[in-house]
Amino acid sequence: IDLKADDLREIGELGQGNGGSVKKVEHVPTGKIMAKKIVLIDAKPSVRKQILRELQILYSCHSPYIVSFHGAFVADPNICICMEFADKGSLDGIYKRIGPIDIDIVGKIALAVLEGLTYLYEIHHIIHRDIKPSNILFNSQGQIKICDFGVSGELINSIADTFVGTSTYMSPERIQGAQYTVKSDVWSLGISLIELALGRFPFSDASSDDSDLSDLEGTLSPHRPSPLNRLSLRKEKAKEKAKKEKRKSKGVSLQGGGMTMSILELLQHIVNEPAPRLTPEGRFPQEAEDFVDSCLIKDPDARPAPKDLLKFAWIEAARTQDIDLEAWASTI
Ligand code: ADP
Ligand code: MG
Questions:
Q1: Any atom of ligand 1 within 6 Å of the Cβ of 139
Q2: Is the ipTM of this complex over 0.90?
Q3: What is the pLDDT of residues 129-171, one digit of tens each?
Q4: Which of 18, 198, 267, 293 has fewest C-beta within 10 Å?
Q5: Each residue of 63-93: b (16+ CB within 10 Å) or e?
Q6: Is the distance from CB of 65 to CB of 299 less than 8 angstroms?
Q7: Cα 182 to ligand 2 centroid, rounded to whole Å
Q8: Ligand 1: which atom is nearest the Cα of residue 165?
């Protein structure tokens, strides 16, 4: 279809992210329901055209594990990307509604994400760059699909994103400024799977203190090469130290209902501390623990790639396991 802004009727809001918002729309001429992602963008017309050209590769991405692409256009000053609508939304919304997701279903999710990542990487040489529960979508047919992968270098460069979340799925090597590789996606998958199985972000018994984040806004992006160069890191360290002193003097406990961790502390934690695990020991199948441990090997060279992970026992079991995801979808 040749998508035009005027042909789309807005039905509702699906969510808000870093770089813009996502609306549920109807393509009036065909009656087709779609998700329209509006990306706020600060770029010249020539750059916008380049972005639209780069997005064309999405037309050739066809996989049951990838959200399909309907088209993109410029709607000054934004870029709109229209994609398949997932009527059950994203997995973050699902677990926040229903609590921890059963580990057998998490196995099916792991399988679907690995199939999607393997397809993107082996066929199109695309690295996802932003695996997290909000980019894994679910529909009432029981299908699990990934969305929002980084196909356009120009788009990645010009997204006007500020870092506003309190969670990060960034791998230790990325935090330290290394290039993105498909292994970084594997780390993000490991963190996401623990989050789904436990029903909370794994670093969050070290829960975040949002008030600390405001002045770090804009210094971190999940997409760009790590901007935490040594100078800014030193500055942030000094700031954090001052804040900690202030908290101490105010008698605010760092332990209270869970340790308070600012974004910088979280990043340092990811780099310096052992990776999170599926805990408590023995609650989940050994194969699931082994799988997640492998995703979260801190050395990217030792960490398996998605296509290696497809051969893991837990994933082979998930593949043949008879779980009716369509029936599960009707319960959530
Ligand atoms: P983020 O992924 O960081 O949450 P986005 O702007 O990408 O931010 O998306 C905002 C929300 O919109 C997501 O959390 C998701 O719940 C919802 N969403 C995105 N794409 C779709 C889609 N294709 N179908 C249904 N819901 C979607
Ligand atoms: Mg998203």
A1: no
A2: yes
A3: 999 999 999 999 999 999 999 888 888 877 755 554 556 999 9
A4: 293
A5: bebbbebbbbbbeeebbbbbbbbbebbbbbb
A6: no
A7: 18
A8: 3
Ligand with an atom nearest the CA of residue 164: 1
- pLDDT of 245 reads 57
Check: pTM over 0.90? Answer yes or no: no
Q: Whose CA is nearest to atom 16 of ligand 1?
A: 90
Q: Which of 159, 126, 157, 119 is nearest to 37 (CA)?
A: 159
Ligand 1 pocket residue status of 18, Cβ below 6 Å: yes
Using a 6 Å cutoff on CB, does residue 25 contact ligand 1?
Answer: no
Q: Which of 174, 187, 193, 65 is nearest to 117 (CA)?
A: 65
